[in-house]
């Protein structure tokens, strides 16, 4: 504030007017005589007074602000995406408005209205359960949207995601090569796109290896937690006869190992376990996890670059923008829970 | 953009002018005849066209944007603070610009310049190694600052922090009551204020209990990781004769338990271990940790409220602002690694 006041004072002095007049020129120029207005505008220019994103935003219609919409910033997967997003935004000269919605559409709508008021240039949206209708509601607010960790449907916009079908294939291929064809899948609800895709990859790989995918034991949990994994591990041990367990996140894998151990089934000697995610949990536990690693930082970075390109296409005055869908490949990180063959 | 274009078109139609004229009224009103300008302004108002934070920012000097400056958003402690900050900002009608600096002053300065250009109303700064000089550099950029997880020095500004001396006392009090006076401290570098304060609390509590604080075994690690904790646990087991180990974060506690187990020292039967932080790691491991819990969400929330109050004091035209230092108490969460006495 001190800064602004002294700036106004300097401008007023240079233009030979009162600070109230400078303020009027900035806010209600119609009240100021043209000759006076010109003097003040010249002084403003000379002193580079309004080095203000707000002025730029009024002129261009957008500011150097992009929204990042995530369900939960305490989830390390979304935090890793945010890390990549903020790094790329720094490089591109954008600020990142962090919007945490906890999958609450009302909260998300309020955040988007605020972003629109601030003339945000666009937003990166990591949807938990976004249907297309919800996204198009957000789009009506007027910003460019890039979907992250979700493949956009045709004409829906740009997207940056990870090939979860391939991830499922990598996990099951490793388990099949390591021990044998009796594979179990511990998975979250199939209504979550990522869960459905990881399962599809697992089944695909079994089929390619000549194993009937319907022979795969499938356990579905509501919440993909360590506790749910432990119960699944208990159940698998009771059923007996499993060579490898593919868990669709690292929490489930951690729990499954513990649940198998409860019943005396040792990992990896008696059964191998592969997780998904490669977050801190994968290496924090006593038995480091073999897991599918997603390029989270790269995904965040690319999402920003995709958005900046889309904004640029628009600023260049109608150069036709072609939506893009970028799909990154995951990789398998081999550790102790399912060692190298 | 479509939205903006159609908005301009609608305004132009209502005012009976071209869209170029509407654009001139918005950007270079001095070019437009007063009567025309009045018609356009009336149309803008009628259509609620510029419901724009940018316009508000130009008028008031600030926008409804606050910065959140953290060293690393993938660190779950900072992510938890961000969670509290975004929730409170939502309630107060502010957006949060997430600035991740990885303790790089140059990167931080660029972020602050961008925040200043965007007329951010202020910023919440969670410093890793901030000296006062660095903070005053940031303050010169012109935004209000609130320090988070660090007690501000006199006249430095508002701050919201957690009483780490009390945290150290709670941990050692529990260990003393549980088993005996032979306490070990596994700590990070004392140049980190939090580490120094937690140690000071540990020593204070020993003194209060009639134990000479210099009899406490102290192991200092460079990086406060699980691996470093494990090596510390190995060293403690080799030295022998410890009743309780106070680790100044949960990573160290997890490692110490593992390092003690390597040498056949069982936790909690042979020695009790208390961590600090109560992040996911505290409950993710096979042995749930007794740990000092910090009100991270509340700290984030209060930081926003403190900043909003400071901004309000300024907006109310010079009502004198009194800096405040809020210190929250941590609490001990008792789990298996150091059970109830």
Automatic annotation (TrEMBL), chains A, B:
Entry GO MF terms: DNA-binding transcription factor activity; transcription cis-regulatory region binding
Keywords, alphabetical: DNA-binding, Transcription, Transcription regulation
Keyword Lipid metabolism part of the UniProt annotation: no
SUPFAM superfamilies, per the entry: lambda repressor-like DNA-binding domains, Periplasmic binding protein-like I
HTH lacI-type domain span: 11-60
Pfam families with a match to the protein in the record: LacI, Peripla_BP_3
Protein name, as recorded: Transcriptional regulator, LacI family
Source species of the chain: Krasilnikoviella flava
Taxonomic path: Bacteria, Bacillati, Actinomycetota, Actinomycetes, Micrococcales
């Amino acid at each position: 504030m001190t800064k602004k006041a002294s700036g106004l004072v300097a401008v007023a002095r240079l233009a030979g007017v009162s600070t109230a007049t400078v303020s009027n020129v900035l806010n209600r120029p119609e009240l100021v005589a043209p000759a006076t207005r010109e003097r003040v505008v010249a002084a403003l220019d000379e002193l580079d007074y309004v080095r203000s994103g707000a002025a730029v935003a009024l002129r261009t219609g957008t500011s150097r602000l992009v929204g990042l919409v995530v369900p939960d910033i305490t989830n390390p997967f979304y935090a890793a995406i945010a890390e990549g997003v903020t790094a790329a935004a720094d490089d591109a000269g954008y600020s990142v408005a962090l919007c945490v919605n906890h999958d609450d559409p009302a909260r998300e709508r309020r955040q988007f209205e605020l972003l629109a008021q601030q003339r945000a240039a666009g937003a990166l949206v990591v949807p938990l359960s976004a249907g297309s209708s919800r996204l198009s509601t957000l789009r009506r607010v007027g910003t460019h949207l890039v979907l992250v960790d979700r493949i956009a449907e045709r004409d829906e916009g740009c997207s940056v995601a990870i090939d979860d079908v391939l991830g499922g294939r990598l996990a099951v291929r490793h388990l099949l090569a390591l021990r044998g064809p009796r594979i179990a899948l511990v998975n979250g609800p199939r209504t979550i796109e990522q869960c459905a895709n990881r399962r599809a990859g697992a089944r695909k790989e079994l089929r390619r290896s000549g194993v009937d995918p319907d022979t795969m034991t499938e356990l579905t949990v509501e919440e993909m937690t360590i506790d749910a994994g432990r119960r699944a591990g208990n159940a698998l041990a009771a059923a007996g006869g499993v060579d490898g367990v593919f868990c669709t996140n690292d929490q489930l894998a951690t729990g499954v190992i513990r649940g198998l151990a409860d019943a005396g089934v040792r990992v990896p000697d008696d059964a191998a376990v592969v997780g998904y995610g490669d977050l801190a949990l994968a290496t924090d536990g006593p038995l480091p996890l073999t897991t599918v690693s997603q390029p989270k930082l790269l995904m965040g970075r690319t999402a920003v670059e995709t958005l900046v390109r889309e904004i640029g296409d628009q600023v260049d005055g109608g150069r036709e923008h072609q939506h893009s869908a970028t799909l990154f490949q995951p990789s398998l990180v081999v550790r102790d829970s399912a060692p190298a063959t």
